[in-house]
Each structure stands twice: as structure tokens, then as C-alpha cells.
Amino acid sequence: MSTPADLVNLRRRHAALVQDRPGMRAYDAAEALAAAEAELVAAGCTGPVRRLRPDWKGIFEALPGLGTVMALTRNAHAVHEKVGRYEDVQVRAHGGLVLGPDIDLRLFLNRWHSAFAVSGTKHDSLQFFDGQGRAVHKIFARAETDPAAWAKLVDGFAETGVPASLVLRRGPATPQRKAAAGGREALREAWSGLKDTHDFVVMLSKLGLDRTAACRLAGPDLAQPVHAGALRSGLERAAAGDLPIMVFVPNKATIQIHTGPVRNLKTVGDWFNVMDPGFNLHLKETAIAEAWVVRKPTVDGVITSVELFDAEGSVIAYLFGARKPGLPEIAGWRDIAESIAQDLAV
């Protein structure tokens, strides 16, 4: 637990850090200070802050009233930013969906833990964290955002009478993965019998495999290992053909999805970026330890993805062709993915 005294001390340390390194983002500052990002926010390091009740259903059902905002979801190596409205919000006890044309989210709310409203020098924000203090989702106000609706949401969900301490949970131990029951043959049989891309995760759970282990075991007809340049190649080829694609960036509590073309691509240091109006992607290419072209059978035909992982086997991002359930994969995307499988095969 971070006590009020701990948070005051953290605020002092943070002030000294940013004096030497102005403009440092909260994620990087937390790492430099060996603290959780939620602790920086709770301490007021990123601006005046109010704790919000963890009423995820109530908060999300209020979001459409804000109008246009910017939604941000990140993991350790990728940041996904979308401008739009929260529409078609569907929240249940432990999960939810946002299915608007611009902001498209999958929510695993049983892994959400704390929430804050931060008053920023540039933009006010709503920030959400898991039990270990890692950011799972952020919402930033823009010039078009309704200020009265924003204030009403913050006032309506603000905690009262809560001490300034922050209780974080110790992360669960990494589960030990067993070998697939029946080995490669069982995996290939289950994989070949898929009816929907969402069934893939269920299959992995039943077989006790993570994604990278399954890809390595399945064989190149189902999962072809490719060079890390698959990310850049996929985005560049999609941009050249003005082809609509889907870009997924997940963490353990949220998945954020862009559907549409990508156009303005730019490299800055280790980061490969999409800098389009309404959609920004920042992805650290040097963190890509494994990349795969993955083929999943469905009732709509084979669905092909380019999947990127870090050295610990955590997902960095997925690329798919733009599609809706009930429709086949667009031929242009399959051509891109198959050319990557051939040209960049490991």
C-alpha cells in the first residue's frame, strides 16, 4: 500500500526527476522512479486529481454524453490513440464492449482496479489502472468535448471521504503452461476445426498453450514465423494500396481497435508511427521479438493476421484486414499477408 506519506515523497522525487528531464511522460517517469503509474497519478504528479468510484458500468454509460474525445490504450511497447465518440456501449458485470465507428474497445473489467480524473495543463483526462497500477485505458478531453458533461461525470463519480493512500495488488504468478494435450496433432486438429477467430483463445486455454507456443507448434501452413519487419511491411503495403485494415493493441484489461486505412507513416528513433487525423499508433520496433503470419479457419473462410510479440511472449499488436462478421477476408489484405509470409519468412 502507498500511504499518504509515501505519495508525498513520490511527488518530491518526481518533481526532481522532471526538473532534470522536462516533458517526461508519466509511463517513463514511473519506470525511472520504480513506481506504478497509478501512484504518480494518485500523488498528483501529473496534475490535480480526484479519485473516482470504480463503477465501470456507470462511468461507461455516461461517456457518450461527453461527445468527441481521444481514447488511448497502450501496452509496454505500443500506444493506440483514437479520436471519436463512445457509442454502442455495452457493459456487463466483468466485461464490456464499445462498438462505435471510431472508438472500438473490448473491456475485461474484472482486471480494472482504480480510476482518476486528472486536470491537465493541456487536456483533462480520465485514467484507469489495473491492480498493479498499470494504465489500462485513458480518455482525454478535446476542444470538441462537452465541458458540462465532463464536469457532471467527474462530480457524479468522485469518491468522498477516501484517504489519499493507494492499495495495489501483487501481480499473480505467471501460470505454468503445460504441453498441449495430445501434442501437435491435437493442436492442429483443434485449430483446423475453428469456426470463428474468437474461438482461438478458447482453444488455447483448453490446450494449455500461449499464442507463441501454439504458433511454434502448429506448423508453417497455420503459423509462419517472419522477421520483425512484418509490422512495417504490412502497414506500408496497406498504405500504398489505401487498403482498410484493423490494428489491435491490447493490454491485459483492454483491447483497442482501429478500422480503416493508414496513410501517414513515420519513423522516430526506435518507434514506427501512424500519424493520421483521428488515429495515431506508436510502436517500438526494437521490442518485437517474434512475428507471425497466422491463418485461422472460420465459417467465413480463412482469416489471416500479422501478430507481433515481445521477448516475454506478450502481444504487442495484431494486424488484420478490415472486415465484419459474416464477410470474407478482403483479398487485398490476404495478398499483403501472404507476401509477407513469403518475403520475410524466417
Give a description of the structure.
The protein is α+β, with helices and mostly antiparallel strands and 346 residues long. The chain folds into two domains: 126 residues, 3-Layer(aba) Sandwich (Heme iron utilization protein-like fold), CATH 3.40.1570.10; 161 residues, Heme iron utilization protein-like fold (3-Layer(aba) Sandwich), CATH 3.40.1570.10. The chain is 29% helix and 29% strand. The protein is built from ten helices and 18 strands. Strands 1-7-8-9-2-3-15-14-13 form a nine-stranded antiparallel beta sheet. Strands 4-5-6-12-11-18-17-16-10 form a nine-stranded antiparallel beta sheet, sandwiched between helices. The longest helix is centred in the first third of the chain and has 17 residues. It is globular. The termini are far apart.
Strand portion, in percent?
25-35%
Highest-level CATH class of the largest domain: Alpha Beta
User: How many runs of DSSP E, i.e. beta strands?
Assistant: 18
The helical percent reads: 25-40%
Task: Report on the biggest sheet.
Answer: 9 strands, antiparallel
Element pattern in H and E: HHHEHEEEEEEEEHHHHEHEEEEEEEEH
Strand order of the largest sheet: 1-7-8-9-2-3-15-14-13
Distance N terminus to C terminus? 46 Å
Q: What oligomeric state do the depicted chains represent?
A: single chain
CATH topology of the largest domain: Heme iron utilization protein-like fold
Mean model confidence by pLDDT: 92
Write the CATH architecture name of the largest domain: 3-Layer(aba) Sandwich
Note poorly predicted spans. 173-179
Domain unit count:
2
What Rg do the Cα atoms give? 21 Å
- Number of H/I helices: 10
Shape: globular
Content-based structural category:
alpha+beta
**CATH H-level superfamily of the largest domain:** HemS/ChuS/ChuX like domains
